[in-house]
Design a protein that fits this description.
- It is a single chain.
- This protein is an alpha/beta fold and 153 residues long.
- Helix content is 36%, strand content 20%.
- The protein is built from five helices and seven strands.
- Strand 1 (2-6) and strand 2 form a beta hairpin.
Length: 153
């Protein structure tokens, strides 16, 4: 099972989760406990959140991605810092991805309108990345420790 997560910065906001195998399930959750329950048993988890402690606007990974896919939010804004802090607290072994880039690299097979909300759609794009990563079909941007992974074109 592959899991994608569109993480909210706090448990007050909706987090989208998509579990993908031969089937697909999407959820909107809020608490850390719900996130942990829905990701249990995953082979690969891909998350839309910066996994970093760096206090910079952009790491090399974001700079490389932006050259190819367009603008991203700076990491040193209060909201992004909060998101990064939650991601670091929740996850040890995940890959970082960026759904807007994923949209441009894969044939999604689903339309955004088929999902309950944008968070579940972005989680679906993250789950596609997790699956592609497990199959060795991804490109990595940045150096180890700051890698953002996107499926190959």
């Amino acid at each position: 099972m592959y899991v994608g997560i569109d993480l909210a910065a706090s448990d007050e906001g909706p987090t989208g989760i998509c579990r993908l195998n031969d089937w697909m399930e999407c959820f909107t959750v809020y608490s850390d406990q719900e996130i942990e329950e829905k990701t249990k048993g995953a082979e690969v988890v891909a998350v839309d959140a910066p996994i970093t402690r760096d206090d910079v606007s952009f790491r090399g990974a974001e700079r490389a991605l932006m050259k190819e896919y367009g603008p991203m939010l700076p990491l040193n804004t209060p909201g992004m810092k909060k998101l990064s802090k939650r991601a670091l607290k929740l996850f040890d072994d995940v890959i970082e991805t960026y759904p807007r880039a994923v949209e441009k690299t894969v044939e999604c097979g689903q339309d955004e309108e088929e999902f309950k909300n944008e968070h579940e759609y972005d989680a679906y794009l993250c789950a596609l990345t997790a699956k592609a990563y497990a199959q060795g079909e991804c490109e990595a941007y940045g150096e180890k420790g700051e890698r953002i992974v996107v499926p190959e074109r």
